[in-house]
Model the fold of this input.
Amino acid sequence: MEKNAAYAHLARWFEYLNDDCGYENWSQYLILQLKEFALQTGLDVGCGGGWFTRAFQKMGYQMTGMDISAEMLNYAQEKALAEGVRSEYILGDIAKKKPPKRFDFVTAINDCINYIPKEKLNAALKNIAGALKKDGVFLFDVSSPRKIREKIANTVCADDRDDVTYLSFNRQEPDGVTMEVTLFVKTDDGNYQRFDETHRQYVYTEKELCTALNANGFEVLSVTGHLGEDKENSDRFCVLAQKQGGKHE
Done:
């Protein structure tokens, strides 16, 4: 069976299959982290289907969503149009080049950073710094090492619904996890069509990320657990950093 790139087919089902993750509370918590800053324009890196991009836009920020997956961006644009949300979407890999304009803040939510290979992290952070205006803010979260190693690696995840079945066979790697994803999507004639994708996520520790942020012109302002939980026992942690004036212009 031929493998497809990550989110080639999962794009259309991702938000639907994650409808129990508490998107509303999650987005409100992130928005509260930004409230103390005077911000107007934002770039949502790894925006995927655009849930958080739309949430920030609805709160009054002028948002641009960026993703490496054309399929994800197509879905994001369809959802934005359906909801009457006027965000911009651009195709691109933040580890390869920075966007053509600068923003007051950048976000990278729901495992975006976990998808960046170790050898590309510094390039990605450099480009994020370059995409920010002076004193711009970078807000992101990652799945914790404990979550990846103890809850995802060497497991099988399944979600069986009337219209789609999701299976993920997760194999531990020295620096993260490889997820072999299979979708069975119900067609109009009642049969099911199979799609296969490979996903790769990397483990990043708090120390590793803070060191890389400092090396690329950021000051780390806070590190918290998911929704303010104790970060030592949380499945993900949220990092708020600020670009230091004059660096990486």
Observations:
- The CA atoms of residues 146 and 235 lie 7 Å apart.
- The chain has a mean pLDDT of 94.
- The chain has two domains: 10-144+204-243, 147-202.
- Residues 70-82 form the longest helix (13 residues).
